[in-house]
Design goal:
Helix content: 25-40%
Order of helices and strands: HEEHEEHEEEE
Oligomer: single chain
Shape: elongated
Distance between the termini: 10 Å
Number of strands: 8
Length: 118
């Protein structure tokens, strides 16, 4: 179980550092995407961790001008039992807000969260 948690955290960190900025905004010279400064791995339901499955939950949310997550919603998921843990984790994330022309702005972000038991 510790190994699973470590893999999830590593996956989330890599996702947050390398993929999230690219997915956040269509970049132009005067726009900076939001940057995660705090990520939280989702809790894996015991029933799912025993199944040996891999799951993916895609979450859409707004990063507001203060870097807080607002209005997270599920776009799609492979297992319904993973949706609430994904939403609960995303609500705890914090960001350096996106900026346009040097001013903090709210932006929509869509990210996948992978649940892997291997």
């Amino acid at each position: 179980m510790q190994s699973l948690i470590l893999k999830l955290r590593t996956s989330l960190l890599l996702l947050a550092c390398f993929i999230l900025p690219a997915l956040s905004l269509k970049a132009d010279e005067k726009t900076e995407p939001p940057v995660p400064v705090r990520t939280v791995a989702p809790d894996v339901p015991a029933s799912f961790s025993r199944s040996g499955s891999v799951g993916l939950v895609t979450v859409n949310f707004v990063v507001d001008e203060k870097g807080n997550v607002q209005d997270p919603t599920i776009v799609k998921s492979t297992h319904a039992e993973l949706e609430q843990p994904a939403l609960a984790a995303i609500k705890k994330w914090r960001f350096k807000p996106a900026k346009k022309d040097g001013v903090a702005v709210a932006v929509h972000v869509t990210i996948p969260i992978k649940f892997d038991n291997q």
